[in-house]
From TrEMBL:
<protein>
    <submittedName>
        <fullName>EAL domain-containing protein</fullName>
    </submittedName>
</protein>
<feature type="domain" description="EAL">
    <location>
        <begin position="24"/>
        <end position="273"/>
    </location>
</feature>
Length: 287
């Protein structure tokens, strides 16, 4: 079971990794072996719809259980996988696994999968998605794709075309970590997103007037552009209530649940549903 704070192992390992090229090479070799040895796992963190008082879906978050080094954070190994040319294979594995898992959930629940900008260079991204949907039998409408603003570093028609194709298939395309990147607001309309994820850095200190102002304007923007909005990184009841007061109905964060292995999801859903029928439902009704 995942602890509240990302495990100390991540933090100990990270600085050493940056410093040591030899270790990076070793790790890249480990990654290759890990794909064959099935050392990767997906954890799932719920999206909570406060208005409907239900779990609306889950985000798949990749974990690497290294035989000697323990759990390694995706923010460490994904850049390495990109560098080692392994991100395509890893990405396909994530799509296949996440869709197969989501196909076992109630139909009202979506699955959100993070894509690295590098996956957009793959000639087979769209057919990989189609195959994951076909193999699992999951409806395209239940698959959400999360991309970050870094996707637009090398702005190309190709990226635009792929995003359009995703939308044409009925997928939901979300802009992750919104507000932390390089993006000009122009991307939001030009690249036809369905959904904005307000980054946790703005949620963390909602007591600060500046952060409330940013959250408020992002929610306003999403409404005027006819996009869905979700806030990530909610850790406290105060943050949840502040967001609710701003009219944000979908939320995600440790306050509701940390990312969990698939075996735990029935318990996660039951926990959240039970909390709702108690006190939290009252707050949701007021908005
Ligand atoms: P992200 O997609 O923005 O995911 C949110 C990160 O914040 C996750 O870290 C999640 O565990 C963490 N988080 C969730 N709620 C809270 C909270 O209340 N407080 C705090 N402090 N943190 C919270 P994680 O799992 O370590 O993933 C880090 C990043 O790695 C992700 O950021 C995403 O960009 C990337 N990533 C994860 N899985 C995949 C994957 O399958 N493929 C790709 N390409 N990238 C992935
Ligand atoms: Mg994400
Ligand atoms: Mg994020
Ligand atoms: Mg992130």
């Amino acid at each position: 079971k995942e602890e509240r704070s990302d495990s100390g192992a991540f933090e100990l390992f990270e600085p050493a990794l940056r410093a040591n090229l030899k270790q990076r090479r070793e790790m890249e070799l480990d990654l290759k072996a890990a794909l064959d040895a099935e050392e990767f796992e997906l954890y799932y963190q719920p999206f909570v719809d406060m208005a409907d008082k239900r779990v609306s879906g889950f985000e798949a978050l990749l974990r690497w259980r290294h035989p000697e080094k323990g759990m390694i954070s995706p923010s460490v190994f994904i850049p390495l996988a990109e560098e080692a040319g392994l991100i395509e294979r890893l990405g396909v594995w994530c799509l296949e696994t996440a869709c197969a898992e989501a196909a076992t959930w109630p139909e009202s629940m979506t699955i959100s999968v993070n894509l690295s900008p590098m996956q957009f260079k793959s000639a087979t991204l769209l057919s990989d998605i189609d195959r994951a949907l076909n193999n699992s039998g999951l409806a395209a409408e239940r698959l959400q794709i999360e991309v970050t603003e870094s996707l637009f570093l090398d702005e190309s028609d190709r990226v635009l075309d792929i995003l359009k194709e995703m939308r044409r298939r009925g997928l939901t395309v979300s802009m992750d970590d919104f507000g932390t990147g390089y993006s000009s607001l122009g991307y939001l309309s030009r690249f036809s997103f369905n959904k904005i994820k307000i980054d946790q850095s703005f949620v963390r200190d909602m007591g600060r007037a500046e952060n409330i102002a940013i959250v408020r304007s992002v929610i306003g923007l999403s409404k005027s552009l006819n996009m869905q909005v979700i806030a990530e990184g909610i850790e406290t009841e105060d943050q949840m209530r502040a967001l609710l007061a701003e009219g944000c109905r979908e939320m995600q964060g440790y306050f509701f649940s940390t990312p969990q292995p698939k075996e735990e999801l029935p318990r996660v859903i039951a926990d959240i549903t039970n909390r709702w029928t108690r006190d939290l439902g009252v707050a949701a009704e007021k908005t």
